[in-house]
Amino acid sequence: MKQLSLTISAVALLAMATGCGSSGNQGQLVGVPNTMTYRSPQPIGMVFVPSGVLKMGTSDEDITGKNESLIRTAQVSGFYMDATEISNMEYRQFTNWVRDSIAHTLLGDFKDNDDGTQTLDTRKQVNYRNPDVQDQLASLYIPAEQSGWGRKEFDNTKLVYHLEYFDYEASTQNPTQPRANFVVKKDVSIYPDTNVWMRQFAYSYNEPIARQYNWFNAFDNYPVVGVNWFMAQAFCNWRTKIWRSEREKNRQYFESYFRLPSEQEWEWAARGGRNESPYPWGGPYIVNKKGCYLANFKPQRGNYAADGGLYTTPVNAYFANDYGLYNMAGNVSEWTNSSYFGDAYNVVADVNPDVNYQIRDNDPQWMRRKVVRGGSWRDVAFYLQNGTRDYEYADTAKSYIGFRCIYPEVSQAVTNRPTRSAHR
């Protein structure tokens, strides 16, 4: 009997040992094993801006702005940022995608999914020169007798993007309301306003650049202009959509989304680690030791061409700052995500500060002001300074305002530098 008891105990111990071996935790708290190998993504064309402490605010010379841009210290999390302003060529990828999506819908190019639903089959190429296709897409064209040029042309007003996203901030502030109440839906006309080159300059002849700037190949690498704040938002939403779709198709992790930077994120990136310098390259001068201008702006009381560009210049012109970002001063001013209020610096937090008011359809015009940063080809040097604030109304487009995107990444923002895989 004693021998049988010892045998049973040995079997029980063996079973316990086998159980421990199979679970691998030996009765300890080890967490749920992660079966995914994570590699941090780096979007093409972006550079990493590390976390750091921003001494934001107006420069010492800005006497008039000292009350609305108080000197403050804030912590900014790291993120990826487009090395250049969004170019005409890059924005054209967006407008072509919207055009093709509308065409696929009219042509009935749908594919059946495994769950019984249907989606657009965007793999097909639309042959816009095919007469049969043109007949089916007749609603997208302006007839020759109405175009003004004697030939049929595509009606760019039909390029409307359906913007849809979840307002996470509003949802957290109203936790008792259904999540569906915070899904923002908006149709945005997304083709750049080419008439800004003529409408904003009275008694001048800018018709050639107005007719060519957005589509002619010579301007492919120039910054897109004539886009309002809502169009920039739509671009970020679309860029997130195609990025997420591709990563999910390849069973890759998706952790963030593209958006416009806050004005503090923009200022932190523009300074390039030179925290108290007036310009992205340092300063205090706007020329180098050879006498060459370091940005595209309005020098010498209006000699626009003295810096090498009468209007805009290529997005990678001039020298990049220490983070590898081009034209953070001059060329075109850039939309930010932040709303413009004169006392915004008095109320923002010390960590990732931002004032971003959700614009509603019935808001007065002053509530539609969005911060623009960096100065442009038509501005004097004061507007090129890192701390200078300016604004424009969200629903207006200008020939001197463009944008660039950021891609926040918390996992790398905490470590303050990108992983090795991010540079492959």
- Major sheet: 4 strands, mixed
In what range is the share of β-strand residues?
A: 5-15%
User: How many DSSP-defined strands?
Assistant: 15
Total helical segments: 11
Regions with little confidence, pLDDT below 50 for 5+ residues: 13-21, 418-424
**Rg, please?**
27 Å
**Could you estimate the helical fraction of the residues in percent?**
25-40%
CATH architecture of the domain at 51-87 and 192-423: Alpha-Beta Complex
Strand order of the largest sheet: 13-12-11-14
Classify the secondary structure makeup into a structural class: alpha+beta
Mean pLDDT: 85
Describe the oligomeric state of these chains in a short phrase. single chain
| CATH superfamily grouping of the domain at 51-87 and 192-423 | paralog of FGE (formylglycine-generating enzyme)
Distance between the termini: 68 Å
**CATH class placement of the domain at 51-87 and 192-423:** Alpha Beta
Order of helices and strands: HEEEEHEEHEHEEHEHHHHEHEEEEH
Global geometry: globular
CATH fold name of the domain at 51-87 and 192-423, please? paralog of FGE (formylglycine-generating enzyme)
